[in-house]
Write a structure and sequence with these properties.
- It is a single chain.
- The protein has 248 residues and is an alpha/beta fold.
- It folds into 2 domains: 2-203, Aldolase class I (TIM Barrel); 205-248, no CATH class.
- It has helices spanning 2-5, 22-28, 45-57, 72-79, 94-101, 106-117, 136-149, 175-187; strands at 33-36, 61-66, 84-88, 121-128, 156-160, 193-196, 206-207, 214-219, 222-226.
- The protein has a 6-stranded parallel β-sheet with strand order 1-2-3-4-5-6.
- β4, α7 (136-149) and β5 (156-160) form a beta-alpha-beta unit.
- The termini are far apart.
């Protein structure tokens, strides 16, 4: 991602795409939603807002992938047109945000709470960086905060860190650390915990919190099987958090 976010404008292939053109382009490719990501959508807030409005008017859904660092008033305006958001929560530590991100934690927590309160389907991503935010205590605190403030149904994605750009002095996240993080989050009551940026058995699959049966089988970005019907488990009828297309 850093190769995109840190590139000079003249080094980046680009096309002119106005907000009014996005719905037609999406439908040309049979896309039913538009995602705002690569890079941070809050950087191009006005463009994202205008595009969300046009997409919504055309019957498309909107999804944000964001670090969540934004003031509340513009966030609330944007959320009126957003259906889903994957928000980074780097660590439940203001010191981590100040030392590593040169930011603060509180605005991110507020973004998560506001999005949830406004009906946005919220998912959380946590990039686990060895020695910086990978302790049992930090992982447990993050998981507990999500359960208490967003709900145990909130999906949590633990992503593997790789040494790039300005942090080349640390190793990639060990697979065992990701497995441990998943176990901790599930022990704190989270129903949907995933592991990303690495291939692990069942790491991306969705299981029913009611009966435990596998509902969605994934391989990377591919969905190999989706058994969810009308937003519910077909076996025990437990409602499954998320935006699901109606199926017979």
């Amino acid at each position: 991602n850093w190769e995109i976010s840190q590139a000079n404008p003249e080094e980046t292939p680009a096309v002119e795409l106005l907000p009014d053109q996005i719905p037609a382009l999406a439908k040309t490719y049979d896309c039913r939603s538009v995602a705002y990501t690569y890079t941070e959508p809050m950087v191009f807030y006005e463009y994202a807002l205008d595009s969300c409005i046009r997409a919504k008017e055309a019957g498309l859904k909107n999804a944000l992938v964001t670090a969540g660092y934004i003031n509340e008033k513009p966030l609330r305006r944007l959320c009126r047109y957003v259906d889903a958001a994957n928000i980074d929560l780097k660590a439940l530590s203001d010191r981590f945000y100040r030392d590593i991100c040169r930011a603060t934690l509180k605005p991110v927590l507020n973004t998560l709470v506001v999005c949830k309160a406004m009906g946005v389907e919220v998912e959380v991503t946590n990039l686990i960086i060895p020695t910086l935010n990978d302790s049992d205590e930090m992982l447990r605190a993050l998981s507990r905060w999500i359960v208490r403030n967003l709900g145990r149904e909130t999906p949590l994605h633990f992503s593997r860190f790789f040494p790039h750009y300005q942090m080349r002095n640390l190793p990639p996240t060990p697979a065992e650390t990701l497995d441990r993080a998943k176990q901790i989050a599930e022990s704190e009551g989270l129903h949907f915990v995933y592991i990303g940026n690495i291939t692990r058995p069942k790491a991306g699959d969705t299981f029913c919190p009611g009966c435990g049966r596998r509902l969605v089988h994934r391989s990377g970005y591919l969905v190999l099987e989706n058994r969810i019907r009308q937003g519910k488990c077909p076996d025990c009828k437990t409602s499954i958090y998320g935006l699901w297309e109606p199926k017979p």
